[in-house]
Amino acid sequence: MNPIDVYYIYMNDNNINLARLDLNLLTALHALLTHASVSAAGESVGRTQSAMSHSLSRLREHFQDPLLVREGWAMTLTPYAESLLPQVLQVSNALANLFEGLQPFNPESSTRTIRIATRDICVPLLTPLVAEIGKAGPGITVDILETVSIREAVASMQADIGFGFGTDKAPANLDVRKVAELTWCVFAPKKHPYLKKQSLETWNNSRHIVVGQPGESNGPIEAKLKDLKLSRQVLCYAPNFNSALTLAADCDALFTTLQEPFCSNGYPTGLSPVPTPSQFKMLPAPAILTLRRDWGNPFELWLADLCNRFTIKSVRA
């Protein structure tokens, strides 16, 4: 359904007289739901915190729901506010397009910023896309936002593109396209026993570098180990993937990860990528490019076309 139709249905279903409706409340609602903060929402639309608080009070009265509630030091959306967010994003985007008149987008003269949400392991894979954007738009700036909540960043319009790996399923208001099948491998330092015997026993008897925090067990490697009724001995928990690779090169430990992100920069001296154990073969991890589903916005159409031509070459350890 066209977002403009969603807008009118939404208004009519709630028996609202459009002539009496304050559309500034839509702007406030959009900002409040995407930022989950009164001060940040006000700053994003150039309004004071007091004015945004007043808008929140009016919105709470209208919807008969608090919308934002405090949990500890932060504010979070209520379940009802979460359900409103997709509609609000569609309507806001449609109205912006309507009143902007859908002016043609010319990348050669544009000075806008394109925001890409991703994780640090995926940044090297974005080099061809960033280079292509630079060629097409000399005045365009690319801002890479490192986050684990990639699709949420795109859905809330904090980012134009989200790039990561995992399932290619997405909410209805996002457009997901697969650009590669990434390869799992083991990085082993020189003279490590695993280089001679790439068995599950050798892998399991080794110490490992792991990205994340102790107690986290929601990754694909941990899921596979659970299936095999095994657990690995961790030497060090690294804060990110690049630091994990450096640690693996200088320690007598293995680092099991995706191979493609590290190919373009080369591997640290004395570190070799080799296959995972035969019993430990995991499914390829698809690289996913997530875009907001466009509604005829020239910029989004241009960006989608650019991304359609973006692919990553898979490698094998």
Q: Could you list the spans in which at least 5 consecutive residues all have pLDDT below 50?
A: none
Spatial order of the strands forming the largest sheet: 4-3-5-12-6
CATH-defined topology of the largest domain: Arc Repressor Mutant, subunit A
Helicity level:
40-55%
Report the sheet-strand fraction: 15-25%
What does this structure look like?
This protein has about 325 residues and is α/β, with parallel strands linked by helices. It contains 13 helices and 12 strands. The strands form 4 sheets. It has a 5-stranded mixed β-sheet. It has a 3-stranded antiparallel β-sheet with strand order 10-7-11. Helix 2 (about 25-35) crosses helix 3 and helix 3 (about 40-45) crosses helix 4 (about 50-65). The longest helix is centred in the N-terminal third of the chain and has 22 residues, at about 80-100. The protein is globular.
What's the short version?
By secondary structure, the protein is α/β, with parallel strands linked by helices.
Keywords, separated by commas or semicolons:
3 domains, 13 helices, three-stranded antiparallel β-sheet, Arc Repressor Mutant, subunit A, D-Maltodextrin-Binding Protein, domain 2, alpha/beta, five-stranded mixed β-sheet
What layout of secondary structure does this protein have?
Layout lengths: L2 H11 L10 H12 L2 H8 L3 H15 L4 E4 L2 E4 L1 H22 L12 E6 L8 H10 L4 E6 L3 H6 L5 E5 L8 E9 L1 E6 L3 H4 L3 H6 L1 E5 L8 H8 L5 E6 L2 H10 L4 E4 L1 H4 L7 E4 L10 E8 L5 H11 L9
Parallel strand pairs: 3-4, 3-5, 8-9
Antiparallel strand pairs: 1-2, 5-12, 6-12, 7-10, 7-11
